[in-house]
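Chain X:
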Amino acid sequence: MSTKTRGSPSLRSLKKQCAEFSFKDHEQVFLVSSPDTSSTLATAILCRAIMKSGGTFHVSFETPIISLDRVNELRTKHESASVIFVGIDTMGKKKIRKGKSYPLFVGGISESDQVESLTLGNNNVVPTAAYVFVEEHLKSHDYELQIAAGAILLHTGSTQLSTKANEEIVEQAKEKKLIEERKGIRLFGFGFLPLDELLLYSTRPFIQGISGIQKACDALLSEADIPITKLRAPMSSLSSAEAQHLTQHLTSKLLEKIGPSIIPHILGTDYILTRETETSPLRYLSGLEAIADTAWARQEQGAAMSVWIGDRGRSLRGVIDIYLSHHKDVISAILRLETNLKGVSTETSTSIEIPGVQGELLTDVGRIALQSGIANQERPLLISSDESTVVIWTTDSIDINQVLNVLQKKNLNPVLTSAKSLRFLGLSIESREDVLNSINPKAKERSS
């Protein structure tokens, strides 16, 4: 697909471009978000600002690439609202229906000159563009800046901020002490889960020989000289000296047990979101990412969106419960795979059948199967249970929007469940070949 996109914008150029857009009516806004974490956090920034400016909003999620027919369909359905697309690429060159006003696009690339003229930034600066838009047309506060900086770091990594605009936003957040760098253990729940659950329910990463195995977890904690009285206490409840001592001992013992490939997933650079409480699962950026990825895998971005917007009560508790239940079930499925693997490998892919497992679990089960070496990381993995099939891969070279474009033309409409996975309901043998060919064109050459 031939698309047009802008270069690498600065914050100044984004502000100048944003000032040219008209956004006079925020009373009723319909937001269409791509399902990826960067876009959903950018959407949350817009939602918060709309709400604080006295408006109302409704959020819908679409695949990250849609046709202009679909744009017009959504525009017609929400005729009375202002419409904003976030992180969405478009196909086609048809004219867009104006309705109450023309829709706006925060990020995204397009074949259409008209859409390009209505687009702020590109896919490298979606959270930054959302924050700039809020500053120019709505009301922004430090919390929106913190979310934007966190979303940028998740999207690009701390060493590759990709554009000057992203770098400037992160620096602003650091200067205001909204986000602080931290090195150490990056496991989900580090600040709020009891220590004995921290390792037991770890799937990000899955620690072979430890995750899901109570005796192994108890033995490791005992070897790390962690007192029994501290096992049911989260790190946030300990004094600074106690936390530092226990972290050092636990880190030392973990390094003796884990393979070098997963060390960066357990130990390394993290960020503290300082506006979150000590016991909040969103206190650490790695925790926010884990919740976001789980919500994405389960297609429950709406629940996560409530939390991003600011609900720290019922919605947050519900998201945590879903997270823990989900990953307990994922660990159970992985342990089952390790003892009773039924799979088929070819030169181009690996296929695994795991009957009785909920389709919502397959993305994380597949991710762990690749990460832990149950399946070959160099090939795409098709993991199936009953009516659901997930195809998942590890390479960074696949353009997911290009894959989706090819599959849509074949009337295959998968659900994107992570940046590197697609879920299908029912998938014939012929369709499996189409899916593999769209991910790896060389597969077709090898099979022919």
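Chain Y:
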Amino acid sequence: MRCNSLRKKVFMTNDYEYIYGERAVAFLDVLGFQSKLLEFEREAVNFKDSHIDEQSEDNGNSFYYSRMANDFIETFNSAISKLNPDKFSYYLFSDNICITANNINSSKEKSLLELLLVISELYFEFVQKGYFLRGGIDYGLFIDKSSIALGTPLAEAYKIETSQSVFPRIVLSNNFVKQFKVYSIDNDGPYYSILIDSLIKKSCEVKYLNVFNHIFKVENKEEFFESYYTNIKENLLKNAESERIYSKYQWLAKEFNAFIDTYTETLAFLDENFEATDEFITSIQQLKISYGN
């Protein structure tokens, strides 16, 4: 009987340039941004026209500049700069933002939680500039290297953003939520449990990020609520004659009001880093938005 000796080939990862890894992938865009792009362009053209004389004296070099476009990019960079590049990658193309995260869950690092917290922070940073985000997050195998972003999680996150994120919300896929659930098993105390439990909301079959939970990460909490109140109210008034757009901000106003109720009744008193006075609670309750037609 003849025996065939089989050689076991040793595979080295550095022999293969593009390797799939398990990643969470967020695809976000800015609600109503097309009109903003036109504003940026008009501002850039006006800048060049108004400075053409002084620019021509500088060796004939002239350029287009938009302060609003710069503010938009700096807002993005401000929040994203806090991410550890060893765990996260990110891309900005026009009004589209893609953020990917390795799945690290240890006693010291919880990258999927960090991803949600950074997106909540990014959401708030844009709110202060008058922008509102919507998007989707999925989880799965993904190639994420330098300028390459390829895999079904990005396609699924984009699909979620276009089909389910009708309102300014960040919808989470079932794949992502399943991975995220492990964080509630090994937590770091009651405050941590509260943060986890209140971070994901559900409407029928749709699960989405509770962006208002960023309140636990800001020092000036009254200013946080006032920023949301002012910008949601402004967009409701601005779009009062457009039912399609108005309904999006009406939904957000309802979510905001519901969070004020939850926060002032329970969450504010569970925050170990903040003392909620009666005066503070009353001032926040007065920021609920009237959004009826």
